[in-house]
Design a protein that fits this description.
heterodimer, A: 369 residues, alpha/beta, globular, B: 614 residues, Rossmann fold, 4 domains, seven-stranded mixed β-sheet, 20 helices, binds thiamine diphosphate, binds iron/sulfur cluster, binds magnesium ion
Chain lengths: 369, 614
Amino acid sequence: MSEPVGAAVGGPNGDPVGPNGRSALKLVPKAEGKQTAKEFKSDQEVRWCPGCGDYAILAAMQTFLPELGVRRENICFVSGIGCSSRFPYYLNTFGMHSIHGRAPAIATGLSVSRPDLSVWVVTGDGDALSIGGNHLIHALRRNVNIKILLFNNRIYGLTKGQYSPTSELGKITKSTPIGSADWPFNPISLALGAEASFVARTIDSDRKHLTSVLRAAAHHPGSAFVEIYQNCNIFNDGAFEILKDSSQRDEALIRLEHGQPVVFGADGEKCVVKEPRGFGLQVVDTADVDPSEIIVHDETVRRPSYAFSLSRLPNDDLTNTPIGVLRAVERPAYDDIVREQVAAARSAAAEPEQELGKLLHGGDTWTIL
Amino acid sequence: MTKQTRQLDRVVIRFAGDSGDGMQLTGDRFTSETAQLGNDLSTLPNFPAEIRAPAGTLPGVSSFQVHFADTDILTPGDAPDVLVAMNPAALKSNLTDLPGGAEIIVNTDEFTKRALAKVGYAASPLEDGSLEGYQLREVALTSMTVRALEEFSLSRKEAERAKNMFALGLVSWMYHRPIEGTVTFLQRKFAARPELADANVAALKAGWNYGETTEDFAVQYEVKPAKLPPGTYRNITGNVALAYGLVAAGVRSGLPVFLGAYPITPASDILHELSKHKRFGVTTFQAEDEIAAAGAALGASYGGAIGVTTSSGPGVALKSETVSLAVALELPLVVVDVQRAGPSTGMPTKTEQADLAMALHGRHGEAPVAIIAPRSPSDCFYAALEACRIAVTYRTPVMLLSDGYLANGSEPWLLPEISDLSDLSVEFAAEPNGPDGQFLPYQRDPETLARPWAVPGTAGLEHRIGGLEKADGTGDISYDPANHDAMVRIRAARIEAIEVPPLEVEDPEGDARVLVLGWGSTYGPIGAACRQLRQRGVKIAQAHLRHLAPLPANTEEVLRRYDKVVIPEMNLGQLSAVLRARFLVDAIGYNKVRGLPFTSAELESVMEEVVKNV
Ligand SMILES: Cc1ncc(C[n+]2csc(CCOP(=O)(O)OP(=O)(O)O)c2C)c(N)n1
Ligand code: SF4
Ligand SMILES: [Mg+2]
């Protein structure tokens, strides 16, 4: 086994960071007593199409939230527009169903002014990557303490089936009858390009994996970006079938685990090693390489290029798709810095009315008797 | 040599030079000196659009106009009585504004062949007789400054840069202005480089002494202090006053203020100013764009802060969808539009009031908001406070329409007692309000029609809100036709329910038959024109709208009282159109969209014409 790639790319900017005890939830009041999934269900009738992957994500969230152990009223979900963005209506927490693409911006204002909240953003591939692409990358670069869940169904669901910024080239949809001409975004690569401090991928149908990723995201101090592959059985059914079907998925999925060698396949017959040319990673047959060459996954590698290389492994048919936490590093969070600046200034200030008097009377004044 | 002193009741001086000549600073200092003397005053800076236009060119000219008087005044003055021109470009670009007989002080050192050619002068205007109708004062400002600073170990360039202080010293002497304040100011400004402080002070004093000794300046002028209400004053620009008003709103409500903004002329200074006042619990967020700026402000409001977003026309247009969301969510949001000349990029440094229609109607659906417009630089303070009061009391977006003229112009401000400022305290919802112990997020206060401000973190009030239409009371998603119709009407009624003071009319003798009605920054020139008319015995009534939505309850009654109503606006008649449509009043518009404020003289003749014809 080789050293984790992280250790290999050391140096001033490349040092892996150890956990320093910061948590996203340090200022969020804890719940008294045990909470149940039922308490987190709202009284609204769920209106997704039967069989939609969104149901599974909702159910996973409703069972996960009690485990988080923070007060229900201190959890807030902000969403944009799309099928996925209906999510907040079905959770008995605080919630805002906002406007198309803008949830990260709204959540930024909320999170900065309310450190006592656990703020989540629910968005879709169109919402986050098309109309809201700008807000997404800026929230991630700032490292605002919000947890962004991108339900990627590779289609516009709510508007009834146009192609999206994650649809594959040549996709036939209502708006592209002879095939789409645009190259898709890889959301994970995009998030890493913005230097997101936490980047993960999971799948709607794998409750256990989904929950473990939600757990890691919830506690991550700073922005967490989670791409959830979600099936839209009406407009893009089976888009991720290769990653779900029991006869194919072991061959296709790379399950990342921190500190473990990146080996996959039903019998571990495939693995990830460094590419002979360039700086990337590649998939090879385990039998063909010396075990010391196999990459050991390290989500704490500071430089995003390692996680980026992982994000580039999938083929167009989704074979070699990594799931799990690709990156989890700590760096200063925007909201913490802003609040610290305000708090420091306040601690040095007089009582507000008096301070206001001083402000108005500042500069050159004169008195008329 | 004994000099003559002549009394004047008012003077308008314009300092003009290259953007590198420090004219804004010179004007600011002269203004401070004037304020200290107790004159009433009003200022108008005029910046070039380019940051660093080539030196000596027409686009590079920067100017600062100050009007001061022994009575209270309302405008920076229509035309300068005195122009200080630091170079040929400054002379050429400002000459058209000068009335015959005006005094021109020129820096002859800069009137070189090259400098003249740069702005298209074939012959020097100082020599070709073209300035005959003016009182020309030729002063070798640059060379005298350099000579005065010989003893300092400065490069020639550095010494030349102090020429604005020489000019300030001279003009201060001419108008009997004290210079001690400027001396202190320079010492503070150049604290890190004492030799520069000393050199600038020396240049300032040299300018003063030059006035005192030269035979070219035989007369000194005096403008007696104005009889203003007693109290402590400071000079303030609209943007700073607006920022202070937002700070005051935070203090008087006990709520944190959250500003989301993206830089844009002429609104950026509000962001700059507020970013200095974190000690009041003010958070400033420079967003990635105006949409995010508005969104973050709304998110902060949702969390219990006063969410504010500041911009100018192009940016406010981008915020439109978010403002509509705030209308549907019924949450506080203050949107400041420091208007500038449009459409599109237009003339960013020039003023206009053509965003009223956007403020009123620039959203999808029936999405009414409250609108308020300050009338003068210092009024921006009270307008900001009032905008916040309406937003937090009535849980609604409020548009505040300032403009470039107010933003950068300044006037003396009689400082208020903090305890006299409106009390903005509000209560957040604390417990369920429904009959069965459930929480009804859209159950309203019967008087204000406002719904509860139920901030996250309050146990028992967990609820979901959003842009989808809601059933009144429960806030559940509703597609019911009757509910939608009712909600549309409730949202309109909510704005109409906002209490605003009645429209006041100024008509000293009470028998005028013509009313002039304005809104926003036209207050100064309209008011000055009315005074001039009344002095000549022409009867005219003046009213000025501060609240444009809702309109004061007595608006129609006031309009009907007069035979004719004149509405001057720096747009093509946006307020006129509203009043005509709403009250069927045959208002007469006077509309100029030149990027400049009205002059009181032009308004005077427009109004006189109407009065003559009733
Ligand atoms: C400003 C604006 N433009 C367009 C729309 C229409 N619209 C609603 S949802 C949507 C796309 C949603 O796709 P996605 O984010 O992938 O969500 P999904 O429905 O697939 O979950 C569009 C274009 C809108 N609501 N607002
Ligand atoms: S259209 Fe697709 S994404 Fe939307 S609810 Fe139906 S199945 Fe789900
Ligand atoms: Mg989608």
